[in-house]
Each structure stands twice: as structure tokens, then as C-alpha cells.
Amino acid sequence: MAVRQIRTAPDPVLKRKAKKVHTIDGSVKKLIRDMLETMYAEPGRAGLAAPQVGVSLRVIVIGIPEEEEIVLVNPEIVRRKGERIIDEGCLSVPGYFGQIGRSESVTVKGRDQTGKEVRIKAAGLLAQALEHEIDHLNGKLYIDHPEVRETLRKVQPEETGL
Question: Looking at domain 12-154, which CATH architecture does it have?
Fold first, then answer.
């Protein structure tokens, strides 16, 4: 396993739509292990998408304290419910936070690292993390949402984001 470098804006890999994974082979499993190690090495993190480590594949990992660790390959949001305005940051946009509208709850489908189909119903921080990381797979940073630009603010180094 290896801690990989986090790509930051304006790195072009962050703006591309990630490619679908067709086979969960050894290279994808290594990517997942590296992503988990990289995510846990970053303070204040909640999740990580493959483009954030320079790999344009549809893979995300989520590690929220008191929640089960999540690995999703080819995730997609199939249902959204409600909306709430929250503060959000991102490892790929270090030093900034902004307010964004995120769903109160989401249902996401995808595959786990063994290839098994999974469906996750999530609310709160987990829903936020899923939306945030899936945005990365679609080439969208949280600062690309129009409402964030109006509320973007610089923060202290100890404040971090998704």
C-alpha cells in the first residue's frame, strides 16, 4: 500500500468525468488500498475519489468515524430526498470552505471491492460524503456549485473538508 499525492485544483484530472470500471482486478484493488491509506493519512477527511489521487476511474472510499468504511466502484445516486445547506471543504481545494446545498438523504448503488452489487441509504454526513465524492467522479468540485462561490472563505490549516 502507498499514500498517494492528493491532486488539487486546477489539476485537469479533477475536471474530467471518470471512466467506468469494467473489471475489479488487482490494479483496482491496489488503487482501493492506496486510496484508503491516503484518506486515513489526511486529517479531517471523510472520503476520497480516485480522481483526487490522479486516477480517472469511478471509485470512491468513505471513512467517517463511527460509520462502517465504504468502498464503492461505479457508484451512482439513484434517489435524493430533501435539501439542507451545509459548510463543506475538500482535500483538493485546501484552505477553503463554502456553503452548499446537499440532500438530506440519498440512495446510492454500486459495487463493493469484491464486485458484489450494493445499495446504500444514507443521511447526514454520510449522504453529504457520498454526494461530494460522486461529484468528483463527474468532474465537479464543490466550488463548481454556484452557491459556493458566494460563500467561499479561507480557513485555518486545522479546519479541513471532505
Answer: Alpha-Beta Complex (3.90)
Domain boundaries, the chain: 12-154
For each of the chain's 162 residues, which pLDDT tens digit applies? 799 999 999 999 999 999 999 999 999 999 999 999 999 998 878 999 999 999 999 999 999 988 889 999 999 999 999 999 999 999 999 999 999 999 999 999 999 999 999 999 999 999 999 999 999 999 999 999 988 988 999 987 655 555
- Report how far residue 140's alpha carbon sits from residue 114's, in angstroms, rounded to the nearest whole number: 27
117 beta partners: 111
88, 133, 147, 158: which one is catalytic?
A: 133
User: Catalytic site residue 68?
Assistant: no
